[in-house]
Amino acid sequence: MAIFCFLLIFVSGNQLTLAKEVRDMTDWKWDGDVIADVEQATFTLTFKNTSDKPMLIEFPTSQFYDYTVYNANGEQVYHFSKGKFFLQVIQSKSLNSGEQIQWKDTWNYKTNEGERVPAGTYTVKAILNVWKINDKLVHSNPSTSFTFNIKPENTAIR
Fold first, then answer.
1. Rounded to two decimals, what is the model's pTM?
2. Is the confidence at residue 9, as pLDDT, over 60?
3. How wide is the angle at C-alpha 57 spanned by C-alphas 43 and 12, nearest 5°?
4. The domain 28-150: what is its CATH number?
5. Domain segments of the chain: what residues?
């Protein structure tokens, strides 16, 4: 009976610790935006420290983020990191209260196979490849998603 009680306290203690870590992880915002024109879309991905304290974020590689583009049917049409290589080196960024980091990337409306996607509605799912925030391991990468429309290509210009 004494062993059983000890295990309950141990499990309960871990749950309290995990809950505290999750609560601490809400002191930031991960968001995305897009500017889409006829030829390309420019994605802006933003990580913002919304807490009142400085924050240190650490990444396990030189790849700070990743994103995937899906068509209206939910089919993957483009994956940013496919076929790319990233340095295997720990990177860190320090942010004061209210500060943010932005990354921009341009997508030319082509699949990873090089074919242009048709006009229509597309959804981007972006993840932050963060490893630690303030020396606490991040067990699930933050993600955000946003939708945009690709207008029909003007073939008269080509």
1. 0.78
2. no
3. 115
4. 2.60.40.2360
5. 28-150
